[in-house]
Design a protein that fits this description.
Blueprint: H1 2-17, E1 45-54, E2 59-67, E3 73-83, E4 90-101, E5 111-121, E6 128-140, E7 143-148, E8 151-155, E9 164-165, E10 167-173, E11 180-188, E12 202-215, E13 219-230, E14 238-247
Antiparallel strand pairs: 1-2, 1-14, 2-3, 3-4, 4-5, 5-6, 6-7, 6-8, 7-10, 8-9, 10-11, 11-12, 12-13, 13-14
């Protein structure tokens, strides 16, 4: 497992070291730079923030509040902000997310879940997005592997026909609650029926660190940081992502 993680990281570093011409970066969404787990704790309340910045000075923020009414359903609402180079920070969208767990953790060989999400645009003339994302997770000893496969369909003004299938993956080595190393990879391919090689696609990967700390009797703080390396011409050369989640 450790050798496999090193191979992926070495490939990402090699791609980052290769020369590339200057180009415009494809737009990113802060909320999509996260790997979700099918594990849900009944009665849990949470607030979360996700922030990123890129080599090209593109920035994004996502702030959310959520609640888990049952052990198999968690609801969350996001406010998503975006800033392109030379522009001001603006509200991009409101996203309503419902996450489901199909069974208790460890009940089956593979832990399964899904996310159903609707993105409501906040800027005139922008399109919305409907998304369905299966979640797969499996633990092998101290290694925890998680995979999300978001399938998106645009709607509204200026939408692009065709569904787009992406991925968000994480391999985490559970060393201690305070700090665990990981590798992450993300991809946002073009819509089906319009596939054109790697044109306009975001693919990036890199190392990450995850941890958690108790908040006295209030709950738990979970945090992570990931410096990601662009693997395709339209992806940012590098993207730094930070996440903080407070659970009560």
């Amino acid at each position: 497992m450790r050798r496999g993680l090193l191979v992926v990281l070495s490939a990402a570093l090699a791609c980052a070291a290769s020369p590339r011409a200057a180009r415009a970066e494809a737009s990113l969404d802060a909320e999509s730079l996260n790997v979700y787990s099918p594990q849900i704790t009944q009665g849990e309340k949470e607030v979360e923030s996700i922030l990123f910045t890129t080599q090209g000075r593109q920035q994004g923020y996502a702030f959310s509040a959520g609640y888990s009414p049952t052990s198999y359903w968690a609801a969350e609402i996001y406010e998503v902000y975006h800033r392109d180079p030379g522009s001001t920070l603006a509200t991009d969208a409101v996203e309503v997310e419902n996450r489901f767990a199909f069974g208790a953790p460890g009940q089956y060989w593979l832990d399964l879940g899904a996310i159903v999400e609707f993105e409501i645009p906040q800027q005139p003339g922008d399109h919305g997005v409907a998304q369905f994302s299966p979640i797969l997770e499996k633990q092998f000893g101290p290694a925890l592997l998680s995979l999300n496969l978001p399938l998106q369909e645009q709607y509204g003004p200026g939408y692009t026909p065709g569904a787009a299938l992406g991925y968000a993956a994480r391999a985490e080595y559970l060393t201690s609650p305070a700090l665990s190393p990981a590798l992450e990879a993300y991809g946002q391919p073009a819509a089906s029926g319009r596939l054109g090689g790697m044109t306009g696609e975001n693919h990036f990967a890199g190392p990450a660190a995850y941890g958690s700390a108790p908040l006295a009797s209030f709950g738990t703080a979970r945090y992570s940081v990931a410096p990601l390396i662009g693997l395709t011409p339209d992806a940012p050369r590098w993207t730094l992502v930070g996440r903080l989640e407070l659970e009560f």
